[in-house]
Design goal:
2 strands, two-stranded antiparallel sheet, mainly alpha, 284 residues
């Protein structure tokens, strides 16, 4: 089986499984229990959602998960389909778009596997995490780096995109580090009944460093920068759109949302989308 055929099979499986997970996750609403609260190990009184697939998750976590499902269903999956079609036409735009979108699925279902309370879709989450990881690696390693920089036109704003990538990494780092450092000696409020800060660990350990590194390499005109920066921008656009949708869902669910989530994340999403168009426009 050729690399292209393997890639097609892996992406097809991701589409099918994520379609099942996102549709059921968002639309399931059967009542399991009502008004159930308990005291966490950290002494916090937690109210559980009590409905649907995420019944054992908190009332503040579920709107975020359901918002993520909506973004996966209406943005993530269509992007996978479109980019896969382009990849099969040997389009470098499609290759970068597919790799960045797979990065979104890898991040999403890794967080579901380790963060969400155990439910009957656990094996689907793990399967999606695994499929996304190997698809991401396959697409990264099958990209010819030495030829990639020549695919970008002379008007490509390399330094601007590089600085933007670095800024995103610094912003993410500052956002989470300020929250964690201010909570030293006490338990962060957002932890609720969960065991650790999974999203913050992923962002600080993977996303922020990758954003900063990709920006530096692009500014220095290194081949790897031409690969990583578009992927970071694409993944950033989908992820920040999901965070923006989460904030909206949380507001309608009566959950307190900070001004950063309501204003900054939608703004970053718009900037990521604009920069994504700039990148795609400058690829030959």
């Amino acid at each position: 089986m050729t690399t292209k055929a393997v890639n097609n099979v892996l992406v097809f499986l991701i589409i099918i499984l994520s379609l099942i997970a996102s549709v059921y996750g968002f639309f399931s609403n059967n009542v399991v229990f009502e008004n159930k609260t308990f005291q966490s190990l950290n002494g916090e009184t937690i109210t559980l959602y009590g409905k649907g697939l995420y019944y054992n998750d908190s009332v503040s976590m579920v709107p975020q998960a359901r918002a993520q499902d909506i973004v996966t269903l209406f943005i993530g999956i269509p992007l996978l389909v479109i980019s896969l079609i382009l990849v099969n036409k040997n389009s470098i735009k499609g290759k970068l778009l597919l790799t960045g979108t797979i990065g979104y699925f890898l991040y999403t279902y890794t967080s579901y596997s380790f963060l969400m309370s155990y439910n009957k879709f656990f094996l689907i989450y793990v399967s999606l995490m695994s499929l996304s990881l190997f698809t991401f690696v396959l697409n990264i390693t099958s990209t010819e780096l030495k030829k990639l920089e020549f695919k970008f036109g002379p008007k490509f704003p390399r330094k601007y995109i590089g600085i933007f990538s670095i800024t995103i990494g610094v912003f993410i780092s500052f956002l989470w580090l300020s929250m964690i450092i201010s909570s030293i000696g006490k338990i962060p409020v957002i932890l609720e009944h969960y065991t650790t800060l999974v999203i913050q660990a992923m962002d600080l350990g993977l996303i922020a460093p990758a954003s900063i590194l990709s920006g530096i390499m692009l500014i220095k005109n290194k081949s790897l920068g031409y690969l990583l920066s578009p992927i970071i921008i694409i993944k950033g656009a989908t992820l920040v759109l999901a965070v923006s949708m989460m904030a909206i869902f949380m507001v309608f669910s009566g959950v307190n949302v900070s001004i950063i989530e309501l204003v900054m994340f939608p703004l970053i999403a718009v900037l990521c989308i604009i920069n994504l168009f700039v990148i795609m426009k400058n690829i030959k």
